[in-house]
Amino acid sequence: MLKLKKENNDGQNYILFVPEITHDDWEIINNRVLLNVKVTNPITRLAGFLSKREPIRDILFDEKCTSAWIKIDGERSIYEIARLDSQCTDDEFYDNLRRLIEFIKYISKRGWIRYKKVKKIEEIKIYDNRV
């Protein structure tokens, strides 16, 4: 069970982080986000050159990832994004939060987002008494 504690080390609680999109080469196609990713790997570029085709590494998100990507605005915390997503779907909040954290970690490692700030617990609207 996930617990939000009021402590001085709010920076340690990952769900209080506020993500912001840094990857600006993306578009929405058929209600899904398509990320256009440049190929920088020299081996892949060489293989594309030898086959006389441009190597393409575009990523098409599914509905849940698209929904999360669109909600990343630099103002909402990870907790708030998960809360909004769980209101739109029939999924349990904690399952949705777990999936969102994995997605956020993945796109953060790729460098497509950055963490703008860390919100204080008092700034987050908590709608669930179990948290």
Report on this model:
The protein has helices at residues 42-50, 63-71, 78-88, 93-109, and strands spanning 17-21, 26-29, 32-35, 59-60, 113-118. It is an alpha+beta fold and 131 residues long. α2 (63-71) crosses α3 and α3 packs across α4 (93-109). The longest helix has 17 residues, at 93-109. It is elongated and about 55 Å long. It starts with 16 loop residues before the first strand and ends in a 13-residue tail after the last strand.
Strand order of the largest sheet: 2-3-4
- Unreliable residue runs: none
Structural class: alpha+beta
- Sheet bearing the most strands, described? 3 strands, antiparallel
Distance between the termini: 8 Å
The rough form would be described as: elongated
Task: From the alpha carbons, calculate the radius of gyration and give it in angstroms.
Answer: 18 Å
Number of strands: 5
**Topology order in helix (H) and strand (E) letters:** EEEHEHHHE
* Proportion in helices: 25-40%
- Quick check: average pLDDT? 82
Number of helices: 4
* Strand percentage: 15-25%
Keywords, separated by commas or semicolons:
131 residues, two-stranded antiparallel ribbon, 16% strand
Question: What are the SSEs and their pairings?
Answer:
Elements: E1 17-21, E2 26-29, E3 32-35, H1 42-50, E4 59-60, H2 63-71, H3 78-88, H4 93-109, E5 113-118
Antiparallel strand pairs: 1-5, 2-3, 3-4
